[in-house]
Amino acid sequence: MYRRKPCLGVQYVARHTVTECAKDHRKFRMSLHHKIISIEELKSSEGVFGKSGIVFCDEHPDKAIEVFCEDHSKPCCTLCATIYHRKCESVTTVDKATTGIKTATRTIELHKKLQQLSQDIASSLKVGKNNKTEIETESTNIISEIDSLKNNIIKHLARMENEIKEDLLTKKGEILKSIDNEAMELTSLKCTIDNWKRIMDTCIKHGSELQCLTEVNRLLTKKDELDNRIKDIMSKMKTKSLTFKPNDSIQKL
């Protein structure tokens, strides 16, 4: 078993995993030119590269970094120093540039800054995670409130339905009673008229002139009163109907 270190342009691995790591590095553009060195090779080269360790040049992957340009704050190989930094005033060896780097103020401050940023991000992630939990809880509560509201609306509609039906039955009864009363009055008047007609038929067909005269005069005295009663009743008679008009709030449902 082995543990891989962060990739800085060179990967240190056990000898039997060199080929495997090389294949992995060739899969990605950023590590395509990284140098793969076994741990045994690293140990054998410590005397050559000193305490700075082995880090290979980005421009020339087959060459190790040996110098540091202070003008550009850039470590590089000797070839890069010759090509790109020959006019720079402050070019020194890596060993000299790395002396005290681990305890340098900028290193410590950078480390603290990175640690603080990591903690800040972790804190933000925790806040986001907690917020997700809160959102889930709030969503569940809202759904529960909606269900409760729906049940209350259903109950309210049921009460409204019963009230409307009861009111309908009451109005229906009143209208039917009014129609029946009108019909009774008209039926009574019709019976009176039919009775008068039978009397007239009898007088005309079988009665004497005196009997006919008497009945005609008697009926004529009552005719105006009968006409007035009929006109009064019929003037009040209207075709009745039942209607249902929901209020605005119900119509919008």
From TrEMBL:
<keyword id="KW-0862">Zinc</keyword>
<dbReference type="InterPro" id="IPR047153">
    <property type="entry name" value="TRIM45/56/19-like"/>
</dbReference>
<protein>
    <submittedName>
        <fullName>TRIM56</fullName>
        <ecNumber>2.3.2.27</ecNumber>
    </submittedName>
</protein>
<feature type="domain" description="B box-type">
    <location>
        <begin position="52"/>
        <end position="93"/>
    </location>
</feature>
<keyword id="KW-0808">Transferase</keyword>
<dbReference type="GO" id="GO:0008270">
    <property type="term" value="F:zinc ion binding"/>
</dbReference>
<keyword id="KW-0479">Metal-binding</keyword>
<dbReference type="InterPro" id="IPR000315">
    <property type="entry name" value="Znf_B-box"/>
</dbReference>
<dbReference type="GO" id="GO:0061630">
    <property type="term" value="F:ubiquitin protein ligase activity"/>
</dbReference>
<keyword id="KW-0863">Zinc-finger</keyword>
<keyword id="KW-0012">Acyltransferase</keyword>
